[in-house]
Protein 1
Amino acid sequence: MLINRDYARLWRGQAASAVGDAMAGTTLVLWVSQVIAAGRPWAPVAVSGILVAAAAACLLGPVAGVLVDRWDRRATMMRTETFRAGLAALFAGASFIPNRALPPAAWLALIYLTAFTLNGAGQLFNPARVAMTAELVTGERERARAASLTASATHAAAVVGPPVAAPLMITAGVHWALAVNAASYVISGLSLRRLHSSPPPLRPPAGAARSVRADLQAGLHVLARNRFLSRLLAVTLICQCGTASVTALNFFFVTGPLHATPRMYGVAEMAVAAGFVAGSLAAGPAARRAGARALTWSGLLAAAALLVAYALQRAFLPGLAVLAAYAATVGLLNSAADALLMAAAPGPYMGRVLAVFGPVNQVTCAAAMTAWGWLASTALAGAVLGRDSLIFLIAATLIALAGLRALTALPRAQDHPGPGRPGPAGKLAGD
């Protein structure tokens, strides 16, 4: 089920770490909103600061990508998990200090710094994990299966973690909920000890000195000249601009056109998470039959059609079913696109390519959510069809354009070399 023993070890570690991260995120939000900033008018801003601090860590991604390509990837993951376990344990120990012993500003500074540092370390762990997956799993279809298993574990953690974290914090205290996160990093590190990895791709000759800037520029040059990677990045960015609309405005759509209460928004979010898990699990078998490329463009077109159908819903239960189907389709195509990325990125540049893809997509998603929110608040406030419905229709058009771009621009698997293999005249694939 988990492809091979080494990948199974990698998957177990990632799954344990994902559950701990989901629990820690929920715990921090509850701690800030219900304890540190309870009853204060600035509580929403304080909670959003956690998300901003975590997102800001993506700025470390490009440098982290160079280091991932320089260092042994298994050792990088183990050291990262050791560091995160120690930091999470120190933070859990600090939480035993009575809340009144420090002013709210000091607690918030500590929380933001911890969130930034943990996510900054994740900028090393995540590219190393994907690069390690590409080493341990070969073939486009098997890599699609590995990507689907990894994504399903992440989405399942998002479903399981919060419902466990909330009662644990209420009954046992915030420190024990945070201690679970530290333990998850320990479990992850232990599961990685028996992995087999190849030498670092960028191991320098004896006495050679290289700057991080030079290695980063070399990685960006490869990404810019590799047509497959640049086209895949363009497809994912267009798709992000469309899917961000649901992330930004779904609460208002559920409580508006779908005529549901705010409490039912939680049910809608559970349906989204369940859809992501189902779609991610289906990606592996689907990629075996159709291939990751076909799954990517067809998934984008299907997601666009389902978002149109969702925008036209006016009752909660039918809308919930369409929303779950849309999330499943997005989960499926995300896994397929991950498999394409692992197949196309040259091995020595894997860390740097991944470190560019991740932050650029995160920044694009944040900018798109801001833009959709502005449109909903101003330009389209008086739309006849309904503000959120019209925005979803525009977003669906963008997703469809991404699907058409993937259909016409991404070559078939046999048309481009695999990772690290030269194309004609010794050039990289797509040069």
Note: The domain at 5-196 is CATH 1.20.1250.20 (Growth Hormone; Chain: A;).
Protein 2
Amino acid sequence: MLDIKLFRESPDVVRKNLEKRGDKEKLKWVDEVIELDKHWRETLKQAENLRHRRNVVTEEIAKLKRENKSITAHIKEMKHIPEKIKVLEERQEKLRQQLDFYLMRMPNLLHESVPVGKDDTQNVEVRKVGTPSKFDFTPKNHLDILLGLQLINQERANKIAGHGFYFFRKELVLLDFALQKYAMDFLVKKGYFLVNPPYMMRKGAYEGVTDFAFFHDQIYKIEGEDLYLIATSEHPMAAMFMDEVLDKNKLPMKFVGVSPCFRKEVGAHGKYTKGLFRMHQFNKVEQFVFCMPEQSWQLHEELQKNSEELYKNLGLPFRTVNVCTGEIGDIAAKKYDIELWMADGQYREAGSNSNCTDYQARRLNIKYREKEGLPPAGYVHTLNSTAIATSRTLIAILEAYQQKDGSVKIPKVLVPYMGGIKELRPPVKK
């Protein structure tokens, strides 16, 4: 959520940001926000003046009683003050709700380095790492590889849960868990605090984390409960300090969260959806940081370095892109995507790294103080970054490390986590 002071003091900053994002609809909202805020402040002042007048009249009545003078006129005036205050408070609350509706949907201010563009074809490549695999045979896609290895069952999963679910089998289960443990160990050694969050969240917390109206179609609701299945561990980690004030001396606070993720993936039509790429349930290891405002841009690069190092160690070719204005979403001020190379020669998104500046913290009311005992000094900054989303990383491993005989080599760094298994081999035909 943006600071209301921006609309009061620098509305052109908001307008230019919306123009850069190409968001014509919300550009129309700026004047509405300014007008609603003006009326809200006027109503607030009127109510405060009436409360002050009520106190003055109360004192005057007490004085008149001591002097045995008439208080009839004062009593008559006092009789109407509470009713007037109530009307103003109701109007004030209505204006506040209308104002919050717009403020909660206004996107974050973009960093100056974010490229302008309409879609992912206009993301800007920052660097490309690793050499794509060269095959002396026609490579298969990951789903055909897994079927050949008999490590996945789609039909039975579809039978009990519908499209977008799979039964992982045998060594594929081990490989998924190996990726999670590898990423967790890597980040814990770097000082990140390991968290396994609740897999459900209340609506109030979710509204603080993200644009709930936009994300609502992506998440699963628990019927009859004020609970939603999490789409990523980023969301419960972001909300865990909701309505709290953090000590400046304890910042930055760095977390690594591990959890399953549940997504409807509505709106994925026309996008790459083959096999494991867009699943309703997958596992992910996520980095999350709370920090001081002056620390966030340096930490944004640190998180990116961590993610890239994880993929380098796996020997997977990838590229990093600076996500353009048309793809970045409302929460982030700047976002990097890591795109993994796949056997059809395309690089596809495997994870993202976002600096949300104080945008999430304002929504969640997470502040910092200079030291214990002092009042809050401002809002913290929050950052989130995918360490490893296992499903898409599995795709890249299977396709990059596939062999002519249908087997798949295991990246060396994962062999210890696989109990010494160095390759996935097709079952022996009897």
Note: The longest strand covers residues 281-291.
Protein 3
Amino acid sequence: MAVGRSGVVAALDIGTTKVSCFIARIDGRGMIRVGGVGHHEAKGLRAGAIIDIDAAEEAIRAAVDSAERLANETIDEVIVSFSGGYPASHTVGIEIGVHGRQVTDLDVNRVLAEARAHVEPGDNEVVHAIPVGFTLDGTNGIKDPRSMHGSRLGVNLHVVTAATGVLRNLDTCIERGHLSIQRRVLSSYAAGLACLVEDEMELGVTVIDMGGGTTTIAVFAGGQLVFADGIPVGGNHVTNDIARGLSTPRSHAERMKTLYGSALPSPTDEKDIMEVPLIGEEDAANATHVPRSALTGIIQPRVEETLELARDKLEAGGAVARAGQRVVLTGGASQLQGMRELAARILDKQVRIGRPIRISGLAEATAGPGFSACAGLLLYAARNPQEAIATDLPGDMGNRFARIGRWFKENF
């Protein structure tokens, strides 16, 4: 596989609760060396969408500045992940005539251009356009049709879209920080690149990236992203449920969730008593005391709902068969105790927690599930040339299909 990019690369993961930035140097062999890491509490976002552009810009600047200082680099462009904007996907299939001769680069360019012409995103914007397989005279599963003979050349183009307004607001926020955007990548897609092993990608696997305000889904099969979707529910909803249910400040609700929370009950829950400060009460003597079972009773229904919504998205999108029997949970909200076991029960699949295993040298604090998407952006830049033919950002339309031929020459 050819290297997609070399030199200094900056990855920016903008989540509802955390903004992360990794700056790495990629050598000519595609080896990644992370030199700087920065992260900051996200502000001004809800469900992955900007609601306060000034606050969001400040958080992005803080994360980027921290990474720049550690890396001793100054960056001016980033690869950015997104999770908001209600991402959705569909596949476009198209065929053209090649008159029984050998397939050329021009034919590949032409069939891809024809497929793109049939994409109808409506009010949304195309973010990914991935060829997931070519056909030649009805024969499926061809990765590179060049030099093969046939009469009808076809392609299945997997298209991922998201709400234009959400994406443009994100662009504006980043550009106000004097950064240009090289590419946007769906967070669950990026997380999958960091967390999955090759066999999982080939045989079929579902990645569920559980963030603070959103949960995004990506299905990989045959080594490619074949389905994507998203749900505007995440870990913040669990925190809010705890705050409301126990009448405690959100900061303490988050602390309780992190330290004592579980998605599944345990036999000792009734015996474990927790002190819960009440909203507006300054005197600690007025705090209430509740068993841990009360906390679990609030958390479990919300987590079950999130996983059931993810299951429904897979079923509605016809992705269950391609998704195989494996699920990888990642993202900060996936770290909740009991999450893996509850997901296995609801999704009826083998489940593991995913961490960025494909990038070595990360510090322990940044090598957990919460940083999978950011790490995956670096891998996207270095080792995922299939996305070299994805939709370009506005203003970079002219040479898109000219690059397709170069991509094939570099990779096959």
Note: The domain at 198-356 is CATH 3.30.420.40 (Nucleotidyltransferase; domain 5).
Protein 4
Amino acid sequence: MRKLYFFFAISSATTFFISKNIIAQTKPITLNPQNPHYFLYKGKPTILITSGEHYGAVLNLDFDYITYLDELKSNGLNLTRTFSGAYAEPMGAFNIAKNTLAPAEGKFICPWMRSDQPGYTNGGNKFDLTKWDENYFIRLKSFISAAQQRGVIVEFSLFCPFYEEAQWKLSPMNVINNINNVGNVDRNNVYTLDKNGGLLSIQDVMVRKIVNELKDFDNVIYEICNEPYFGGVTKDWQRHIADVITSTEKDFSSKHLITQNIANNFEKIIDPNPEVSVFNFHYASPPVTVAMNYDLNKVIGDNETGFRGTSDSTYRREGWEFILAGGGLYNNLDYSFTADNEKGGFVYPSTQPGGGSAALRKQLSYLKNFISQFDFVQMQPDSTSASDVSSQKARVHVLSEKGKQYAVYIFGGEQTNLSLTLPAGTYQTEWSNTLTEKIEKQETLQSNGEKITITSPNYKEDIALRIVRIKK
């Protein structure tokens, strides 16, 4: 009953907001013209940092997204990622406990309307791919509106490959789940231009519908396809979908950013699509992932973490290293969010493919606060200004505007002697605890332009250093 009441309450609220023009028709989040490695949102330089649920907030009717978004806001996190509903997962897929992308029977919603014919694989009637489910779009716009009110950007992933037959058997595009006699193809041919069994036109119309429905939201960016390097997704098809988004928006007063998922780990991007503004990686290896593609002058993102255990420190370190390598988007995949624990307190088993916790969300908020102290659009990756000279050889990452401001992250050991090369001047230094945000040490530093060594306070695992010039 609580879920049913929640759905109707949100539907009514959305209608009210739209009727009162609460959704401001402002310019959507865009690349920062001063430094396109970052974003500009509501006139402010922006880096997107979050620890978000597993992309089922809209398509899973059991998921209370208001509680979820409130949790992100409470930590100052400003990004979430969600799937359209063209793809869903069976329970137990990838060893994920209480997977939000795996709705219970009868709890799945997607852009297409149910028909009057029974037989959908996960319960209920089959889909009619020529008609829209208006309840879906009410829920979608309510979700994005709620995110907008909380300062959260939504990366909307339009499609996802079908890794196994189990996922393909759940898709409305599969011929067994629709009444339109389309999609009688192998799962590896769904996202092609020539072997899709009539699905390309269905996909095009869905994209245009979504883009038109969301045109007035300033907090949406569109991802073409999650992990298109699996499941037979072709590059020509990806370019085609990007063209559909662009052509749909050609007469819009404001255009939305398009993101493309490039690879797991890292890859040098060759022949980038000029319509794409954000190039995303999964399980990134900073600083290599960013450094290989920094010359593209676009945002480089790490929009899914995981498969490195469940320890908070693993994903805290990945976030700090990625952002201080020059990345502009970091999304930890947080498995503590479930459809019965939207506040993110689920204690998952050790077999989970990734991590996430209330503690990690708080630690990532410290990263966001730390980088926000800087005029970061003036900064770039810096491999020469600082290095560890201690016996443990800690990993040191620096983002700087040389001679003015330096953001330093150190991972490893319990104390570090840091060699600095700074232009002559007077600097204020401030050591921050990445686990508590406590300022552990402050001092004024005088540089004559030659190498100097400073000593960190003791720390556990990692520590951050802020250096700002105060006098010439």
Note: The domain at 2-377 is CATH 3.20.20.80 (TIM Barrel).
